[in-house]
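Moderator note: this is an archived Q&A kept for reference. The question asked for a predicted structure of one protein chain; the sequence and the answer are reproduced below.
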Amino acid sequence: MKNFTKIALVLVLVLVILGSVLCAVGMGIGFTFSDFLEEVDAGEFSIGPIEGIPFIRYGNNDFEWDDESVGWDSKEDEDFTFSWKDIKKIEMELGSSGVNIIESDREDPENVHLKIEYRNRNHKHRIKADLSGDTLEIESNSNGYNWRNDSARVTLELPMELMKDQKLEEISLEQESGYINVEIPLTARKISINVGAGKCESSEKLTAQKEMSMEVDAGKMDLEELEAEELKIKGGVGDFTAELIQAEKFDIEGGVGRIEVTVAGKETDYSYDIECGVGRVEIGDSNYSGLGSSKSIENPGSKEMQIECGIGNVGVYFENE
C-alpha cells in the first residue's frame, strides 16, 4: 500500500510539472483561458462526434443589451409566417433575448412574419413560435441565465392593417432580461408588458381599449405614449418613464426605483389616493413624503389616480401645466 501511495504521488508530481510546462508553452504562443471558453460557447470545439464541450458553463447574466451590442451576425435563424386573420392574441414570454417589433413592409400584408436569430451555432436555449387556437405564442426555454454571448434576437413584423382594424384582443410581452424595442403603434383591448432585468423602449403609441399593465423589476422602461381606460404601473428597483399618458383610472405602485410620467390634462382633472412609505411622491408642484403617510385629495375632475410609493420616487407631471 505504501509503494502504491509513493507511485501515485510521483505520478501526480510528474503530471503537475508536465501540465505547468504545457500551460507555459500555451501562454507563450498567445493562449488565454477566457478565449478558450468563448470558443467553447461558440461551438468551435468538439469531442469526437459531440459538438461543443458539454458541462462547461461560463459567463453571467451581465450581457449588455444596448443597441451597440446586438449588431452581430446570426449563426442560425428560423422564419415563421402566420395569417393575421387567425390571430386574436399575441403572447411573448422570453427568458433572455432581444425583441424588435416593427411594421411589416413586405408584399403580403395579410401575414405576420417572425424571424428568430441565434448568435451561436450551438446555442443552449431555443425559442419556439406556434399558433395555439387564436393565440400567437412565442416562448423560450431559457430561465434568464445567459451563457456567454449565447443570445437570440426576435423580430416580429406586424402589418399596419392589424393595428388599424383593432383586431387584437390582447398583447402580452414578458421578458426576464434582454431588450424590447417597439417601433410600431400597438393597439389591442388589453396590453401588458413585464420586464425583469432588461430594457423596454417604445417610440410609438401603445393603445389599450380597456386595460393596460406595465411592470418593471430591476430593468428600465422608456415609453413614448400610452392610452388606456385603466392603467397600472408597477415598479421595483428599476426605472419607468413615459412621455405622455391618457387614462381614466391610474394605479401606480412604486418600489425602490423611480417612476416618472407626464399625464394628459391638468392636476385638477384627477382625484388622488396617496400612500407613501419612506420615499417621495411628487404631483405637479406638490410633494408628499414621510414615514407611513397617506392622503386623499378630491378634485372636480372625474379621473382617478391611486399612488403607492415604497422607498423610491414617484413623479407625476401634467401636459397642460
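Archived answer notes: The first strand starts at residue 46 and ends at 47.
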